[in-house]
Amino acid sequence: MTMTAPASTAAALPERVALRFTSPLLGLPGATAYDLVVVPDGVGLFSLESGGTRLFLVDPVHYVDDYRPRLTAEQRAAIGIDTDADALLLVVVAPDVDGPTANLLAPIVIAGDGRASQVLLDDQEMPVRAPLRPSVSG
User: Fold this and answer.
1) Are the C-beta atoms of 4 and 14 separated by less than 8 Å?
2) Which of 7, 79, 135, 138 could link 115 by a cystine bridge, Cβ 3.0 to 4.6 Å?
């Protein structure tokens, strides 16, 4: 299924979008086909599902102030986009004793046609376990 909204607009996504990753997710060898599912009543919250694997993702605009990573030309080319604004960027959420955290160093980048990639942000100081709190700007 193709996303009908611009890729950079998570709020306008359909309930379920089929994604094709350019390579397996970090730490999850094998699968490259996932469904991105909107979590009902969750603000910017999604699940990423394939077989028995389920990860939670968030749109960082709602939880992380001033998160504006820069993608390399190679990272954009891998999913067929021209600019960072052409992609939807989501981050993986992990449980923690002090509350959920987000991996800001390795976001999921999604093109409007469902191509996706998990990228490592080179030369950008981003935490792997950033605390999630409602953003004042989102």
Assistant:
1) yes
2) 79
